């Protein structure tokens, strides 16, 4: 076991007892953890009979580590109230040769074994079955900060320095990408500045031509009259704005449903951007129901019967599905609105954006299903967004002991019958 794990056990009160020369001590306050040099915890409070000691605590796996670390020559350790160890194998002394009170910490073997499993295991969710012992209220309370964390991290990654319109545009394009084309859709957005599109927002066909051209989806020889028409318009806008398309061949079509083919998705994006001004007003005012209505668009008539230029489909194709609209609200509209409200100091508006996640249905993907199989129920998009943050921030990189659920999960090992 590492010494930092001992610190974790002390900080979260996961120990069974503390004794000094065989007499029990009561830990009133574990103190403040010191991440720098010097004793491990400051301002701890420990009661011994009628006496209360207040001061610093140094911790080691074995008391002999005191000498190994050279604390007997360091005056910063002369006035600690306790030297807390798991094994007392050698007396410790301060710089004056005076004995240092060394207390023995008792930790259950079951807890030590479980912590060891969490640190070295490789399961996707290593906190099972204990995760299912936590009540829904406990889970909700412990995970409540993760929604804002996830939004803030997403904003930072996609452009926290951008204004509401540009951030929304990038997020919109990304999350219209049907998963497999998210990255390249965002590349198209970065290559096609929003101000150029806004100059022609009243003309959806102009928007189509610019987006498809910037996505490098026009063939050298047009496959039908519509492609020839849009390619001609794009050539004009490319010259007018000095546009440079992304490299060809980046879009994926393999295992992409025909209605979500790249050309159709970009044509649908053009229809959303045609309403971008109204959408921005709805977001900035917190009218998310109106934003949801505005996202319910269909592509131009050509794309209701085609999945690519010159390639018709067997049935009429609709617009953005309900599931995709919810995804755009979760990943584009609400984060952009949250950012806007934070920037203008509208705390009530920011809170309303967070609250609207609870109005949307839970997402469904393999990560969410993994949690649900292990007793973590999701009722809203707020729940699933927290799950995704939990998985990507703590589960996937094996940061189990940093997880906000870990202390409660490990504490359940002490409780009779386990469930809380």
Structure description:
The chain has helices at 3-11, 65-68, 109-120, 136-143, 146-159, 164-175, 182-191, 194-198, 204-214, 225-241, 262-274, 276-285, 288-295, 322-343, 347-356, 366-373, 381-395, 406-411, and strands at 17-20, 23-24, 26-29, 32-33, 41-48, 51-62, 82-87, 102-106, 306-308, 311-312. Strands 1, 2, 3, 4, 5, 6, 7 and 8 form an 8-stranded mixed sheet that branches. A two-stranded antiparallel sheet has the order 9-10. The chain is of the alpha+beta class. Residues 416-420 have low confidence and may be disordered. The protein has 18 helices and 10 strands. Among the domains are: 3-107, no CATH class; 163-345, no CATH class.
Helix count, per DSSP?
18
Order of helices and strands: HEEEEEEHEEHHHHHHHHHHHEEHHHHH
End-to-end separation: 28 Å
Tell me the quaternary state.
Answer: single chain
What features would you highlight for this structure?
single chain, 420 residues, alpha+beta, eight-stranded mixed sheet, two-stranded antiparallel ribbon, 18 helices, 10 strands, 46% helix
